[in-house]
Specification:
five-stranded mixed β-sheet; alpha+beta; 20 strands; single chain
Length: about 525
């Protein structure tokens, strides 16, 4: 039975349902047909045997949120430094928008029950919704160019591993550059932004960025004899080399992907190579690859990219890995993944990833272009893009493990107002107001006559650096005492006496030095 409820504090109303008792007092809702429900036979009380969040989701306490907020703010500062502007898109999209974009990962999309004649799904990432956004609003952009960042939740029906930051509901931090530019310039900028973003988080372990080019990989497959219609399937198998041995992947290529053993062996001679930018020299000596147009273009792109990355001083962070494939279907150029370089977190997987996707926006424009051709209108121009996504949940797991060694301040309070002797509630409230008016984060204990020891304890537990202390003597002399709570300096005793008129300047001066 579909029941719509309206609440008025102490009464529960049920709107537009049958088999219920009429409720005639309609003073609060004179224009509505309201009824009071008889819930006696409908289980008005429920016994919860287990109160928990759904599998693959979690709550965050105040200390965890303090770490997360700092993480998000640090990443945002990097994004803004590089000229990024932010947008927002719905958390769910039409099912057709997401369909056919993720290859074998499409099985992880959450489909929603049909509502109002539309089939919808929760977004799998922020990239495809961004491409849809560009298709809808591209003409509003300055020459179809946009540097966009977005931080939002995405959803995947994956097998969760909570301790490793692998969830079903999680945040992504994306930065994408859309528009037509000279080759590899935005690609190099994106990789610089990725390196800056990870560096600013002060991770306890170094990281490397595995990098490859889809055109090189496709060219390798073509040279080795893989049919064009099997390339994406073979790519998905090769992408497992970070978790499986070559022997296991080779067996999958033969038994599951239908390749001949000789073709699989040829592929193995290429995809097991990894190193720094000098691996390009090896590829440039391979005449079979250079004769393949796709591979030749990819090698040319990578050579130019490494030059730019050297200028940006991040080339040393790259690992050229020919096994990197990235399972998503929409990538067309460079692809990359950032991974921690530490045996204890190697099994966590990538902490950031991305690549170039020149054709994704065009998929949404294709139908519109067909209509324009019929009307003899100029079709919309394609919008090539390159971008990256930071897996903040996995990074958060690393940061929290690091924070276990030291306390976390979950608030931003700078001053705690303390009274000695009589409660002096109104005086504490006046002081707090004065501090707030001056832009200082302050608080006090919400009791008329709080005990001094409990005030000290609250101040210390919340890691508040300064205390303003008042008593009858201080009030009579129009003075206050200021004490640095983080300094274990016996000389300051009960605090330094300051004229009330000088209190704000003294506090600001001390806070600037902290």
């Amino acid at each position: 039975m579909n029941i719509r409820l309206a609440f008025n504090r102490s009464r529960l109303f049920v709107l537009n349902v049958s088999h219920i008792k009429p409720y005639h007092s309609l003073a609060l809702f004179p224009s509505s047909h309201l009824y009071q429900a008889d819930l006696s036979n409908h289980g008005s009380r429920r016994n919860y045997h287990s109160v928990k969040t759904p599998k693959g989701t979690r709550d965050y306490n105040e200390k965890e949120m303090a770490v997360r907020e700092k993480m998000f703010n640090s990443i945002q500062r990097v994004f803004k430094r590089h000229g990024g502007v932010t947008i927002d898109t719905p958390v769910f999209e039409l099912k057709d928008i997401l369909a056919g974009k993720y290859g074998e990962e499409s099985k992880l999309i959450y489909d929603l029950a049909e509502q109002g004649g539309e089939n919808c799904s929760l977004r799998y990432d922020l990239t495809v919704p961004f491409a849809r956004y560009l298709a809808m609003h591209g003409k509003e952009l300055n020459q179809y160019q946009l540097k966009r960042y977005q931080i939002g939740k995405v959803y995947r029906r994956d097998q969760p591993a909570m301790t490793k930051g692998r969830l079903r509901e999680f945040y992504q931090c994306d930065f994408d550059i859309a528009g037509t530019y000279d080759p590899m310039i935005p690609d190099a900028d994106i990789l610089r932004i990725l390196c800056e973003s990870l560096d600013c988080l002060h991770l306890p372990h170094p990281f490397t960025i595995k990098i490859n080019h889809r055109k090189i990989l496709d060219g390798i497959f073509q040279v080795c004899g893989v049919p064009d219609n099997a390339i994406r399937s073979v790519s998905s198998a090769i992408d497992k080399l970070d978790k499986m041995t070559w022997v296991q992947v080779r067996q999958e290529l033969i038994s599951d992907r239908g390749l001949a053993p000789s073709v699989a062996d040829k592929i193995g001679q290429y995809v097991q190579h990894r190193g720094d930018f000098t691996l390009l020299d090896t590829l440039m000596k391979d005449q079979a690859l250079l004769a393949n147009p796709s591979a030749a273009q990819g090698i040319k792109d990578m050579s130019l990219l490494f030059d730019y990355l050297d200028i940006f001083d991040v080339r040393h962070k790259m690992t050229f890995d020919l096994s990197l494939a990235r399972g998503l279907d929409y990538y067309t150029g460079i692809i990359y993944e950032a991974i921690p370089v530490n045996p204890s977190v190697d099994d966590m997987g990538s902490i950031a990833a991305g690549g170039r996707y020149d054709d994704l926006v065009g998929m949404f424009l294709a139908g519109d272009d067909d209509n324009k051709k019929k009307k003899k209108m100029k079709p919309k121009q394609p919008i090539p893009c390159v971008g990256m996504s930071i897996g903040v949940e996995r990074i958060f797991s690393i940061l929290m493990a690091q924070h276990e060694q030291r306390p976390i301040k979950s608030n931003e309070t700078q001053v705690y107002v303390i009274s000695v002797g009589d409660g002096l509630l109104k005086e504490r409230m006046h002081l707090a107001k004065e501090l707030w008016n001056a832009g200082i984060n302050a608080t006090f204990m919400y009791k008329n006559k709080p005990k001094l020891e409990k005030q000290w304890t609250a101040c210390e537990n919340d890691m508040i650096p300064l205390a303003v202390i008042i008593g009858k003597d201080e009030l009579d002399q129009d003075k206050v005492r200021i004490k640095e709570m983080t300094a274990k300096n016996q000389a300051q005793g009960g605090g330094v006496i300051v004229n009330r008129a000088d209190m704000i300047n003294e506090l600001v001066s001390r806070l600037e030095k902290m």
